[in-house]
Amino acid sequence: MGEQPLGFELEVPFPSAREARIAWAALSADPEPRGRGISRVEELRLGGGTLGVRWSAAEARILRVSVSSYLDHLGLVLRTMDAFGPPQPGSAQNNSA
Amino acid sequence: MTVVIGFEGSANKLGIGIVRDGVVLSNPRCTYITPPGQGFLPRDTAKHHQERVLEILQKALDEAGIAPHEIDCVAYTKGPGMGAPLVSVALVARTVAQLWSKPLVGVNHCIGHIEMGRLITGAHNPIVLYVSGGNTQVIAYSQRRYRIFGETIDIAVGNCLDRFARVLKISNDPSPGYNIEQMAKRGSFVELPYTVKGMDVSFSGILSYIEEAAQRMLASGECTAEDLCFSLQETVFAMLVEITERAMAHCGVREVLIVGGVGCNLRLQEMMEVMCKERGAKLFATDERFCIDNGAMIAQAGWEMFRSGLTTEIKDSWITQRFRTDDMEVTWRD
């Protein structure tokens, strides 16, 4: 879509590039629920250790709802990594019978 | 040996279950309960799930006696359901799948109910009546699809019951449907619209009618709340029995399986049992541990999918509010 009048940018540093990538993959899988009037782009920056998120929106209300929801989701991902991390190395094979 | 952990949170119930080769090792769950007269909204439901999900996850692992490295696959509800709650739960599933380096499987909510129903009851190839707050479908398996033979053309039967409970300000604890069921035991019949349409059903007219009747007849003392609960159940359950019987006749099937939250209702089971007996068929139903949305049903369907070679890439793991039962190819059955 074309350029929207309102924008917001967020940068979130992570302890490691691996953790940043995990958060990026988890959060970027879902598009904005109501695509009309807002867009969101996520990318990894600064050698992969920082998650960058950029929003463009037509209205302040839509932008605020989206950013607020995203921060809730980011908080949940961080709490999940705290509670059930650190990341384990990839298993060569599953123990499927 | 294959161990799957399943994450479910498509409506107001949040559950995480662990299944290993047909055995449910754990299945903790919690329910977001709103005050009488109110339904649950997506944003508040998602907030509830976000607050409770990690606690339930830890409980599932502890009760199963399973460590993350012993898990082979992470399954989650891809849809259908409420958007924000689905996302909240999928985020955790995606995160732990990456933390533990395990494959991910996106499961259809309805197929979760069917596979758990088949596992628990041993039903082989039944006509499935799937009835809940969000879904009402008559399903038969054929040529690698769970095919929808009949369904609601507007609101789910459970939605109709739940919204009627709101009108009467019935408690939502443990569930409005359960409380309607208890009140119905003390009621007598009031005529309501009967709206079967071939293989399909419609509940919105019945809901409007009984909402109006509740205002008018209760004010005048013409009938009691218990009478309306009884009558609503008798009417909507008879409709469900009729479309199920019609599907049985079309398919020549002698087994019926009821799944979904409304499947807990003993009166529905009783009415379906009567019809099945008359047709020389067998009825299968599960109890509230598995009828109601739970994580183990997602783990079980995930187990079947994973063992047949299906996984979901993280980039394809978006949730969808609409996910038709017949959209999924059933690669794990003949």
UniProtKB/TrEMBL annotation, chain A:
Entry's localization field: Cytoplasm; Nucleus
This protein's UniProt keywords: Cytoplasm, Nucleus, tRNA processing
Principal cellular location given in the protein's record: cytoplasm
GO biological process terms on file: tRNA processing; tRNA threonylcarbamoyladenosine metabolic process
Any one GO CC term of the record: EKC/KEOPS complex
InterPro entries, A to Z: CTAG/Pcc1 (IPR015419)
Family listed: Belongs to the CTAG/PCC1 family.
Role according to the record: Component of the EKC/KEOPS complex that is required for the formation of a threonylcarbamoyl group on adenosine at position 37 (t(6)A37) in tRNAs that read codons beginning with adenine. The complex is probably involved in the transfer of the threonylcarbamoyl moiety of threonylcarbamoyl-AMP (TC-AMP) to the N6 group of A37. LAGE3 functions as a dimerization module for the complex.
Complex and partners: Component of the EKC/KEOPS complex composed of at least GON7, TP53RK, TPRKB, OSGEP and LAGE3; the whole complex dimerizes.
Protein name as catalogued: L antigen family member 3
Species per Swiss-Prot/TrEMBL record: Petromyzon marinus
Originating gene: LAGE3
Automatic annotation (TrEMBL), chain B:
Listed HAMAP family: Kae1
GO MF annotation: an example: tRNA N(6)-L-threonylcarbamoyladenine synthase activity
A Pfam family hit: TsaD
Cofactor binding: number and manner: Binds 1 divalent metal cation per subunit.
Keyword Methyltransferase: no
Species this chain originates from: Petromyzon marinus
Residues that hold a divalent metal cation according to the record: H109, H113, Y130, D293
Catalysed reactions, semicolon-separated: L-threonylcarbamoyladenylate + adenosine(37) in tRNA = N(6)-L-threonylcarbamoyladenosine(37) in tRNA + AMP + H(+)
Family: Belongs to the KAE1 / TsaD family.
Subcellular location: Cytoplasm; Nucleus
EC number, UniProt record: 2.3.1.234
Keyword Membrane: no
GO biological process: tRNA threonylcarbamoyladenosine modification
Descriptive protein name: N(6)-L-threonylcarbamoyladenine synthase
Record-level GO cellular component terms: cytoplasm; EKC/KEOPS complex; nucleus
PANTHER family: TRNA N6-ADENOSINE THREONYLCARBAMOYLTRANSFERASE
